[in-house]
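Hi U.,

Before I forget, here's the chain from the pilot set. I'm dumping it here mostly so it's searchable later in email.
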Amino acid sequence: MNLSSLYAAQKAYHAEHGTYTDVLYGQKGLNWKPEGYNGGGKSEKFAYTYGFSHGAEGQQFFTGNLEAPSNALSASNVGKDTFTIAAAADIDGDGKYDILTVDQNNNIVVIQDDLID
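Structure:
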């Protein structure tokens, strides 16, 4: 659901500005953050970390309660006419991340499935 919401926010931003952005929340950004966001980490109500692999917590990425680090979002990127936003979580605690992405064509792809050995 959050990846679909990020897709819609990016499309609206592109329609208005003619480019995509890597700022999810803040100045020159999408003004998107997960519902109930409270600074990131264990206290969050969402499990996955969403966004881009660079930047700042609360701007380019949001850390979920499973605390996947932003570098787990390395499949993400942004350009004038393209974007890929990633989501990552270690669902079963084995050190392997579940990684999904959404792009400018609303393609949601499972890059890595944490539950498959």
